[in-house]
Specification:
Layout (H helix, E strand, L loop, with lengths): L1 E3 L4 H7 L5 E5 L9 E3 L2 E2 L5 E6 L3 H8 L2 E7 L7 E12 L3 H12 L5 H11 L3 E15 L1
Antiparallel strand pairs: 1-8, 2-3, 2-6, 4-5, 5-8, 6-7, 7-8
Helix pairs in contact: 3-4
Length: 141
C-alpha cells in the first residue's frame, strides 16, 4: 500500500475501466454510507461524477466538502484498488455531458431501454461533483 497525492498511470488505467466507484461523503453523527456511482478521472487529475441537485450527497457536501471514492478490480482479477480522498466541489456546469459520456462507457446505448434510461437522466436537474485529490491510496497484487 502507498499514499500519495497524485494519480499514477496504473491508477488511471484502473479508473478508466467501467467499474463502479463507492463514494463516501462526510455525514452528521453517523458513519459514512458508501454509494456505488459512475465516475470519470479527468485530465486535470480530479475525479468527477454526477448526481441529482436535490440528492442527500449534495446537501452533505454543502455542509462538509470531504469525500472519498474507492474503486476495485472485479473478483477473478488480482487484488487492485485505488482510493481517492479530498475536498469536493459541486458544479452546475458539465453534468449532462458527463452523464452522457459515462452512460456510453457503462451501457450499450444501442439498446433502446438504455437509451431511454439515459434520456430520463438528462431530463433531471443534474450537478457535477468534482473530487480534488488530497490523498490517494492504492494496492495492487
Amino acid at each position: 500500500m502507498s499514499d500519495t497525492s497524485l494519480l499514477t498511470t496504473e491508477d488511471l488505467e484502473l479508473l478508466a475501466r467501467p467499474l463502479h466507484g463507492f463514494l463516501s461523503v462526510a455525514g452528521p453523527a453517523q458513519p459514512p454510507q458508501p454509494r456505488p456511482v459512475w465516475f470519470e478521472a479527468a485530465a486535470d487529475g480530479t475525479v468527477q461524477l454526477f448526481t441529482e441537485r436535490d440528492s442527500l450527497k449534495v446537501r452533505r457536501l454543502e455542509r462538509d466538502p470531504r469525500a472519498s471514492l474507492v474503486v476495485a478490480a472485479p473478483v477473478g482479477e488480482g487484488e487492485h484498488w485505488v482510493s481517492v480522498a479530498g475536498r469536493a466541489t459541486v458544479e452546475a456546469d458539465g453534468a449532462r455531458d458527463l452523464a452522457s459520456r459515462l452512460a456510453a462507457r457503462y451501457w450499450d446505448l444501442g439498446d433502446p431501454a438504455r437509451a431511454e434510461a439515459l434520456a430520463g437522466m438528462l431530463r433531471v436537474d443534474l450537478l457535477r461533483v468534482v473530487i480534488h485529490p488530497e490523498s490517494v491510496r492504492r494496492y495492487a497484487s
